[in-house]
């Protein structure tokens, strides 16, 4: 059916076709290798995005903890200042009452007045 020359032509054609496909695949990259590379890149990009989200959440958590600690310190300082002001007021009231008792005068400050003074 086919002669030897026809068989050689068909073989040469197949070899030339394979050679052209190989040159084409090398010039643009093998499609399967490109798919694998893209798949690896996608996984790498998703991992990078997840790491960035985790780092941002950790930064926000640390910032919130720092703000909470700063607020706690300010609250403690305000409470200490308020207590010192109460103590000073109490000492002033006792001093005034002592001065009045030395002069044989009565202090007209009632418990309600004293509470009002402590609050204001």
Structure commentary:
This protein has 120 residues and is an all-alpha fold. It has helices at residues 4-28, 31-102, 111-119. The longest helix is centred in the middle third of the chain and has 72 residues, at 31-102. The mean pLDDT is 87.
Topology:
Layout: H1 4-28, H2 31-102, H3 111-119
- Tell me about the largest β-sheet: none
Question: What percentage of residues falls in helices of 4 or more residues?
Answer: over 70%
- Which stretches of 5+ consecutive residues score pLDDT under 50? none
Estimated radius of gyration: 45 Å
Quaternary structure classification = single chain
Quick one: how many beta strands?
Answer: 0
Shape: rod-shaped
Number of helices: 3
Report how far apart the termini are.
119 Å
Q: Kindly report the average pLDDT value.
A: 87
Could you give the order of the helices and strands?
Answer: HHH
Q: How large a portion of the residues is in β-strands, by DSSP E?
A: under 5%
The helix-and-strand class reads: mainly alpha
